[in-house]
Amino acid sequence: MIQSIKLKYLLTLTAALALGANLAVADDTPLGKEMSSMNKSLRALKKQVADPAKKDDSLALVAKMKKNLEESVKFDPAKTKDQPAAGKDAYLANYKEQMQALGKSIDELEAAIKADKPEDAKKVFEKLSEQKEKGHKDFAPDE
Question: Which class is domain 30-139?
Fold first, then answer.
């Protein structure tokens, strides 16, 4: 029985360390760090956006996300180096377009919060989720 508990503990510890290593790898670039910070703010915002008492805090999180986005566009995605020379400019243009669309969605989120419209904010969260999924598919390094 003790061996079974030790084995479970060892397997759990190994899985946790492996997951932690994957997360650390994803955040080791300047772009990855900005995106990780933006995602953290987005998750916090999603939990509190409907609370009018946290409106100022929510707007501060949006401002932080805008700053993260502003910094993010200064960096090229890690997959850029894997693009053929002939397609690199188009790849980067697509990245910039998606980042601009993300910025517009963040502006929409900010407007919904300022107007005290949590239902509109929820719709923007869905849009942001789709943009995140597409952006990660197109530009995030393969794990």
Answer: mainly alpha
